[in-house]
Amino acid sequence: MLDANFNQIIDMIERRKNNAYRKVNEEMILLYLDVGKFLYELIENGSYGDKITTKAADFMKTNYPSIKGFTKRNIERMVQFYKTYKDDEIATPLVTQLSWTNNLLILSGSKSIEERHFYLQLSIKENYSKRELDRQITSAYYERYLLSEGNALPTTNKTIDEDDYPDTRILDLYSLEFLDLPNEYSEKDLKNAIVKNLKDFILEVGKDFTFIGDEYRVQVGNHDLFIDLLFFNRELSCLVAFELKLGEFKAEYLEKMNLYLEALDRDVKKKNENPSVGVILCSSKDKNIVEYSLSKNMSQTLISEYKLKLIDKKLLENKLSEMNRILENEN
Question: pTM (2 decimals)?
Answer without folding.
Answer: 0.85
